Structure formats: C-alpha cells, structure tokens
C-alpha cells in the first residue's frame, strides 16, 4: 500500500525541464537543486505531500469555486473573454487516469497522453485559468473496472471536449459572473451544440473554424475558403489582434454577414497573414451588431490561453505531476492553477498600484515568482537535510526493487 502511494504521488518532481537544469548544474559544479517538491520545500519525507494529494479530506471543486471568484475579483474586466482550450501531458504506461494514445499539441503528434480542457479568464489586467475538466476517452468510459481503479465513477459517461467546455462555461455563468465573449479553436468552433448553447444564453463568441466549414450567405451556401477568394481588395482591413512580445500582431481582416432568422448578429470572420497570405476562419455571434475591431480583439484573446498554459506549466508545475488516480490529478491541477492565479493577481495589482518607470519593464509573473521564492519561501537545504533525503531515496528504491522481485516470483 505504501508503494502504491509512492507510485501515485510520492515522487512529485519538477519534470523534464527541471531534470535538464539538474544535470546542467551538476556539470557546471553549481549547487544541485532538490528534485522533489517535498525535498525542495524543506520537508524530511514526502509523506505530507502524499497526504495532501491523496488522503486528506478536502474538496478540489470547492477550491475551484474559490479560485474562480479570486481571479474575477483581481483581474476583473467588463470586456473579459472566456477562452477554452485543451492541453496534454505526455505519459508512460496505461494506468494513469484518462491516458491513451491521442493527439496532443504539447508534443505536436499522437502520443500516449492525458488531455484536459481548461477555461481561462482573459482581460486587460491579466489572465488565469478558472476551471478544468479531464477528458476521459471512450476507451475508459467503456471499461467500468478501469474507471473504478482510477478513482472515477463506474458510470462515468463519455463527454467530448466541446461538451466539457459547455459544462465549464455554464458553471462560470451560473455562479453569477458575467462575460460577453467566448473564444476557442476549431475543436470548439466546429461544434453546433456549443454555439447553440452560447447563443441561448446571449453570450457572444468568436470560434475558429476549418477552411472547409460551410456557411449560408444571401447568395447561397459556400465553403469558408471559397468565400475568402471572392472578397474584393477593399473588404480587407489592417488591424492589430493585440500586443505581443515583439510588438502588435497585425493582420488583414474581413467579415461577411451571415443572415439568420434567429435574433442576434452572425459573421464569418477571416484573418489573412500579411506576409504569407495564410488564412484563418472564425464563426462569430453577438446579441447585437459590433464593429469589426471588437471581433478582432476577441479573436486575438485566444492566444492568452497559450500564454496561460506556458506560464502555468513553467512557473506553477501544472504538468509536473506523477499522479495516477482522478482525485489526486484534480487536486494537483487546481493547486497549480491557484499558484498561477496568485502570480497573475500580484502582477495585476503591482501594475495598478506601482507603475514601472520608463527604464524598467513592468513586473512579470516570472520575476514575481523568482522574488517570492527568494524573499518569502527561503527553503533550508543544509547538509543534514540533503543526506536525509539521500537515505530516503535509497531506502525507497530498495523497497521498490524488493517488491518487484517478489511480484516476479509470484507470477512465475
């Protein structure tokens, strides 16, 4: 039982990037940073971390609700956009909840991976994830025993990624929070149920679509790419999709009105790269007509989710878990989201209260994390602490090795 707990949550490392840092520090003769969170935090064993993620009595969904309120309070923006997207963590084996061979943008190919859908609140003051749902493939939901072993309900029903998005957006709105817009990529833009659910609630959206997506205009039904070829030169406008690290992201944009007897305004939005000519397409809806610049702003907000994934993984360890069961995954992820939201909230408050002088860029989440670790946490890693963890690792590996030999002998 102890061994199973260690396999699930005992070795919570900082992941692949930290492993590379560890090896580089050792080659350069620098002090080697501890490689488990419990060790890095100054604890003598991983028992406390195991207990927090696996056995302690607390509700991750209640923490999620508190996190959502915290993010909206500190990053509040009347023009904020909810961005929905999924990200995957590459995994080995088949025992980790939700794992199967599937495409993940993290690797850019089909891998043995675990995928989750996230909802990100993106406003002018900052952005942070406010909800998450694990994508559980049919290979899992069709096997009740496998679900039970991973801590899922035996009657867990399969849900597509757009259905998970509807669930999270509904939770956000039902909690009393307001948003005028939702953005997402082709996975979500191509789903009629998601679009219908948003229109029913009067929530606008700018959702990416495929070039083969068909829309109905006053002249008939056409593919999106066929309509783009028919646009005259004067239909395009140069507009910024938002400021990036290297300046404004300028593209050429055009919008085509889509007639519909239902209330609201609908358009096909087309984006053209000013250098390559590459086109991208968006299905748009708003309760009332809005200018092209508003649709472009919402479309540009979708990149915030990529920044959230990057900083959430790089600064808060969103993807650095080695957990197997659903409850432990849910707890780890919500704590990582909370840590990232804290950095985003501090950044927003600092920018508002203490604007940086012209000679300095404003404080970033990366810099705030470094300062927080250096000035607040101050973990103690003396010789006795490091020798103690060395002893623990050797003892743990000896027990694991003995367990493997016993299991092998039993199977033989």
From TrEMBL:
Q: Which Pfam families does this chain map to?
A: DDE_5
Q: Matching SUPFAM superfamilies, A to Z?
A: Ribonuclease H-like (SSF53098)
Q: What InterPro entries does this protein map onto?
A: IS701-like (IPR039365), IS701-like_DDE_dom (IPR038721), RNaseH-like_sf (IPR012337)
Signal sequence annotation: none
Ranges of residues in domain Transposase IS701-like DDE: 37-210
Superkingdom classification of source: Bacteria
Q: Which PANTHER family match?
A: TRANSPOSASE (PTHR33627)
For this protein, the record's NCBIfam families field holds: transpos_IS701 (NF033540)
What protein name does the entry list?
A: SRSO17 transposase
């Amino acid at each position: 039982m102890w061994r199973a707990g260690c396999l699930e949550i005992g070795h919570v490392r900082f992941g692949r990037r930290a492993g590379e840092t560890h090896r580089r520090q050792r080659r350069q003769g620098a002090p080697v940073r501890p490689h488990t969170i419990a060790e890095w935090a100054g604890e003598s064993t991983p028992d406390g971390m195991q207990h927090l993620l696996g056995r302690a009595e607390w509700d991750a969904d209640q923490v999620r609700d508190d996190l959502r309120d915290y993010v909206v309070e500190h990053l509040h923006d009347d023009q904020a956009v909810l961005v929905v997207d999924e990200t995957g963590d590459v995994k080995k084996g088949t025992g980790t909840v939700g794992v199967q061979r599937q495409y993940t943008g993290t690797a850019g190919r089909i891998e043995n991976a675990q995928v989750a859908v996230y909802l990100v609140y993106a406003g002018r003051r900052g952005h942070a994830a406010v909800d998450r749902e694990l994508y559980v493939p049919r290979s899992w939901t069709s096997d009740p025993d496998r679900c039970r072993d991973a801590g899922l309900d035996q009657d867990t029903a399969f849900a597509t990624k757009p259905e998970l998005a509807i669930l999270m957006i509904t939770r956000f709105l039902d909690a009393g929070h307001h948003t005028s817009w939702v953005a997402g990529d082709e996975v979500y833009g191509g789903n009629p149920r998601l679009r219908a659910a948003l229109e029913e609630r009067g929530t606008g959206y700018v959702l990416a679509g495929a070039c083969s997506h068909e829309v109905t205009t006053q002249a008939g039904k056409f593919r999106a790419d066929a309509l783009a070829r028919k646009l005259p030169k004067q239909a395009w406008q140069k507009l910024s999709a938002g400021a990036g690290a290297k300046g404004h992201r300028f593209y050429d944009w055009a919008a085509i009105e889509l007639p519909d007897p239902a209330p609201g305004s609908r358009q096909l939005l087309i984006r053209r790269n000013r250098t390559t000519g590459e086109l991208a397409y968006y299905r748009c809806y708003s309760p009332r007509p809005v200018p092209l610049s508003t649709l472009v702003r919402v479309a540009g907000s979708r990149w915030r989710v990529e920044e959230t994934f990057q900083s959430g993984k790089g600064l808060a360890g969103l993807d650095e878990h080695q957990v197997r069961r659903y409850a432990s995954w849910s707890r780890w992820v919500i704590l990582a989201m909370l840590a990232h939201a804290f950095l985003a909230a501090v950044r927003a408050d600092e920018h508002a209260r203490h604007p940086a002088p012209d000679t300095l860029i404003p404080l970033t989440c990366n810099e705030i994390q470094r300062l927080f670790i250096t000035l607040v946490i101050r973990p103690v890693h003396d010789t006795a602490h490091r020798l103690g963890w060395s002893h623990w690792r050797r003892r743990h590996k000896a027990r694991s090795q003995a367990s493997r030999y016993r299991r092998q002998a039993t199977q033989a």
